[in-house]
Design a protein that fits this description.
Layout lengths: L12 E5 L2 E6 L3 E6 L8 E13 L2 E8 L3 E2 L2 E2 L1 E8 L4 E9 L2 E8 L16 H15 L5 H14 L10 H12 L3 H24 L4 E2 L5 E2 L2
Parallel strand pairs: 8-10
Antiparallel strand pairs: 1-2, 2-3, 3-4, 4-5, 5-8, 6-7, 9-10, 11-12
GO cellular component, one term: Golgi apparatus
Pfam families: PRKCSH (PF07915)
Keywords: Disulfide bond, Glycoprotein, Golgi apparatus, Secreted, Signal, Transferase
Length: 220
């Protein structure tokens, strides 16, 4: 991420709301402490530093994930970075159950270019991004394909964590790769056509009509 933000590492910032004290330690974790005299007052982790939230070539926030368990999932927190006169935790909310939202003010993000992603990348990854921009401009890839390349770049840079692919997605990916060239696609089509011919002959031998894609029946 942005090198100038690393000076926040090793520091913690707190915010008190009602009976709860929240503590944000950049690049480490977010914790919540219930400040009451109850014997079972809650004190726990709302998330551990995980990855960046990136939108339109900009670091818009930090994701703290895999906090203490909460029903069937783990607590997680998104920290929004906004320009402010001093480093401080300004606002905390819980938009949905066990998913928290923190607003952190800091003068370190006030410069308009302070949160750009591109300058933080290595030359090799910047070149990869430039190539993707050119492919998109030349209409050789779709917007979806462009976003996929960017995601891969961010993952390679360690800005995003690579998600575990589900078995179905893996299978889908495998099929897509099999037909990535016209030659492979034509070859597969030819093989399938041959198999259909054989099946039609076999059906004809048993006096069964063949039903095509158009829904019409053809006697063989």
């Amino acid at each position: 991420g942005p090198a100038h933000l690393f000076r926040l590492a090793g520091k913690c910032f707190s915010f008190v709301e009602s009976t709860y004290k929240y503590e944000f330690c950049p690049f480490h974790n977010v914790t919540q402490h219930e400040q009451t005299f109850r014997w079972n007052a809650y004190s726990g982790i709302l998330g551990i530093w995980h990855e960046w939230e990136i939108d339109n070539n900009t670091f818009v926030g930090m994701w703290m994930r895999e906090g203490d368990s909460c029903e069937t999932k783990s607590r997680q927190t998104k920290v929004h970075l906004v320009c402010g006169k001093s480093n401080k935790l300004a606002y905390v909310s819980e938009p949905s159950t066990c998913v928290y939202s923190l607003t952190f003010e800091t003068p370190l993000v006030c410069h308009p270019h302070s949160l750009l992603v591109y300058p933080t990348l290595t030359e090799a990854l910047q070149r990869k991004w430039d190539e993707a921009e050119q492919l998109l401009y030349d209409e050789l890839i779709t917007d979806q394909g462009y976003k996929k390349i960017l995601k891969e770049i961010f993952e390679e840079a360690g800005l995003l964590k690579a998600r575990e692919e589900k078995e179905v997605e893996k299978q889908s990916k495998k099929i897509t790769l099999e037909f990535e060239t016209v030659e492979k696609c034509s070859k597969e089509y030819k093989q399938l056509s041959e198999e259909i011919k054989k099946l039609r002959v076999l059906l004809g031998q048993h006096g069964i009509a063949y039903r095509g894609n158009s829904g019409e029946s053809f006697g063989i």
